């Protein structure tokens, strides 16, 4: 059901790789809620071509940008403003990548060049997106910027390796740039800390299915789906959350506040018998 929450709003949505991507679901919902927007992804990710289908169904233009390149981001904002016919009201940062995870390096044996790459792609890119937006005065007053995080920013999940550090930095950038942009232009910046979700980035993490099942059994509501995450993102883009900024908001079915669940205790008891 649509509520017209984003009627008349213009946005930029990054990170839609295929139909499993969280950003893909956000784009479909943003369209349903009346927004117009551009889609963006790293030029290399476009080769798969799936984003063209999304662009067609959302009547959205695609503007390639490597989120680590300030030059690409300048082009992204300028072209988006031109295409959409005015300044931007919302931006989705849905970007993450770790070469160390891809190559199976554990936390004690990280390749440092790749570590820097993970931080640049997955965290500093949010700073760059905000910096370029501010420099070009590309976002309207009371605009909203949302990034996606994971609870490994607060707790240790060994398999998440350098992405855990990247998420901690991402959340810190949301807080610090949120203060700056809030003071300057009333622009809001938040991160959503999402449950494990079966996407290309998610499933690439070692032992994904085990911690997906663990989180599902820990959470009273079960794991939050990508669709539900998209709905939450839409509320943050809408005027219903005008005073929410500099927050890391858990969207995890209650996982982050649970110590242990009966289901998990039973599983352990069965093993002990
Ligand atoms: N899937 C999960 O379990 C989960 C849980 C919590 C948070 N998140 C976060 O959600 C966000 C979206 O990931 P997803 O799960 O939808 O997976 P996904 O693989 O569909 O999306 C990740 C996107 O990042 C893009 N990207 C990588 N390098 C880039 C670059 N240099 N410039 C621009 N874009 C680049 C990829 O092309 C891809 O579209 C990520 O920040 C991820 O860490 C995912």
Task: Write structural notes for this entry.
- The chain is an alpha/beta fold and 273 residues long.
- It has one domain: Rossmann fold, CATH 3.40.50.720.
- The protein contains 10 helices and 7 strands.
- It has a 7-stranded parallel beta sheet with strand order 3-2-1-4-5-6-7, sandwiched between helices.
- The protein is globular.
- The model has no long low-confidence stretch (mean pLDDT 96).
- The structure holds nicotinamide-adenine-dinucleotide.
The CATH homologous superfamily corresponds to NAD(P)-binding Rossmann-like Domain
Shape: globular
Instruction: Please list the strands of the largest sheet in the order they lie side by side.
Output: 3-2-1-4-5-6-7
What fraction of residues sit in β-strands? 5-15%
Based on DSSP secondary structure assignment, what is the total number of beta strands?
7
Question: Which runs of at least 5 residues are low in confidence (pLDDT < 50)?
Answer: none
**Structural class from helices and strands?**
alpha/beta
Distance between the termini: 49 Å
Write out the distinct hetero groups bound to the structure.
nicotinamide-adenine-dinucleotide
Considering DSSP H and I runs of 4 or more, what fraction of the residues is helical? Answer: 40-55%
CATH class: Alpha Beta
**Biggest sheet, in brief?**
7 strands, parallel
**CATH level-3 fold name:** Rossmann fold
Number of spatially distinct domains: 1
- The rounded Rg comes to 18 Å
- Average pLDDT confidence is 96
Pathway: Lipid metabolism; fatty acid biosynthesis
Protein name: Enoyl-[acyl-carrier-protein] reductase [NADH]
Enzyme class: oxidoreductase
Binding site for NAD(+): 15, 21-22, 95, 167
């Amino acid at each position: 059901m649509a509520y017209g929450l984003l009627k008349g709003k213009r946005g930029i949505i990054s990170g839609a790789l295929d139909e499993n991507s969280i950003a893909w679901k956000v784009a479909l919902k943003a369209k349903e809620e009346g927004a117009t927007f551009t889609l963006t992804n790293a030029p290399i990710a476009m080769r798969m071509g799936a984003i063209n289908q999304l662009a067609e169904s959302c009547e959205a233009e695609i503007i390639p940008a490597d989120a680590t390149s300030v030059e690409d981001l300048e082009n992204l904002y300028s072209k988006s403003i031109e295409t959409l016919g005015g300044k931007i009201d919302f931006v989705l940062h849905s970007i993450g990548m770790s070469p160390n995870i891809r190559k199976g390096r554990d936390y004690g044996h990280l390749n440092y060049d790749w570590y820097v790459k993970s931080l640049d792609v997955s965290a500093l890119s949010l700073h760059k997106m905000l910096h370029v937006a501010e420099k070009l005065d590309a976002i309207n007053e009371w605009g909203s910027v949302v990034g996606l995080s994971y609870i490994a920013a607060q707790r240790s999940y060994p398999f998440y390796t350098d992405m855990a550090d990247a998420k901690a930095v991402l959340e810190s950038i949301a807080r610090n740039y949120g203060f700056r942009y809030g003071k300057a232009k009333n622009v809001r910046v938040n991160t959503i800390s999402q449950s494990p979700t079966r996407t290309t980035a998610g499933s690439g993490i070692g032992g994904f299915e085990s911690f997906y099942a663990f989180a599902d059994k820990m959470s009273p509501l079960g794991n939050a789906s990508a669709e539900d995450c998209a709905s939450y993102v839409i509320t943050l883009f809408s005027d219903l959350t005008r005073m929410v900024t500099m927050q890391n908001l858990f969207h995890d079915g209650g996982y982050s506040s649970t110590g242990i669940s009966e289901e998990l205790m039973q599983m352990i008891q069965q093993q002990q018998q």
